[in-house]
Amino acid sequence: MAKLKTAVLISGRGSNMQALIDYCAAPNATAEIALVLSNISDAAGLDRAAEANIPSITIDHKQYADRASFEAAVTQTLEDHDIQLVCLAGFMRLLTNTFVDHWRDRLINIHPSLLPAFKGLDTHERVLAEGVRFTGCTVHYVRSEMDAGPIIVQAAVPVLPDDDPESLAMRVLVAEHRCYPYALSLIAGGKTQVINEKVVIDGAQAPGATFLNPTDVA
Ligand code: GRF
């Protein structure tokens, strides 16, 4: 079976991108990372892509007059590479409805909270300020509202008494690195369907598959 041609869009460190690359390196993986696209020319993730021999390209948003022309260039590049699925991984640009609609159900994102709680930036600071006992991460299909869309995979992560935003971010990141490849494997394996704006896995609502404890998944 042909592998799902996947692009990863980054702006920085690229640790989630690395997790996707590592997953795709497995011989039985059903996806391949065919392109890494960054809007920042010196994003650290670009070095990781080079080390993995994955083609990468920078499209600097500052070189474009507006969001529409920047996104048109991104879409053109993705289509030139026959990309079938786009994974946002720390891509720090808000996307217009035009882009989101064009890639509908072919565009996914990872967010470091249990959505729909704690959308937006400074997630871990706000989690600690609220005193919630659990946080986590979410992989979801992208819709036009920020950090919204049908949820594919979530993992819950405990908030510990001595946590600061950095320690909590590190614990959540471990879960992210498990959830994102898992979500990609579900999609590339043809196991997901969006029905009434909910993700159905393998034809049935499967909470066991969509709620995963990081320690449960190798
Ligand atoms: C991750 O925490 C991700 O959830 C958020 O941005 C961060 C990106 O980190 N959207 P990295 O670049 O993947 O290391």
Tell me what the structure shows.
It is a single chain. With 218 residues, the protein is of the alpha/beta class. It has 2 domains: 1-103, Formyl transferase, N-terminal domain (Rossmann fold), CATH 3.40.50; 110-218, Formyl transferase, N-terminal domain (Rossmann fold). Helices cover 34% and strands 23% of the residues. It is built from 7 helices and 9 strands; from the N terminus they run E-H-E-H-E-H-E-H-E-H-E-E-H-E-E-H. The chain has helices at residues 15-24, 44-51, 67-80, 97-102, 123-130, 165-188, 207-210, and strands at 4-10, 31-38, 56-58, 85-88, 107-111, 134-141, 151-158, 192-195, 198-201. A 7-stranded mixed beta sheet has the order 3-2-1-4-5-6-7, covered by helices on one side. A two-stranded antiparallel ribbon has the order 8-9. Helix 4 (97-102) links the parallel strand 4 (85-88) and strand 5. The protein is globular. The protein starts with a strand and ends in an 8-residue tail after the last helix. The model is unreliable at 204-210 (pLDDT under 50). 5-O-phosphono-beta-D-ribofuranosylamine is lined by residues 10, 12-17, 89-90, 110-112, 173, 176.
Gist of the model:
The chain is an alpha/beta fold and 218 residues long. It is 34% helix and 23% strand. The chain has two domains: 1-103, 3-Layer(aba) Sandwich (Rossmann fold); 110-218, Rossmann fold (3-Layer(aba) Sandwich), CATH 3.40.50.
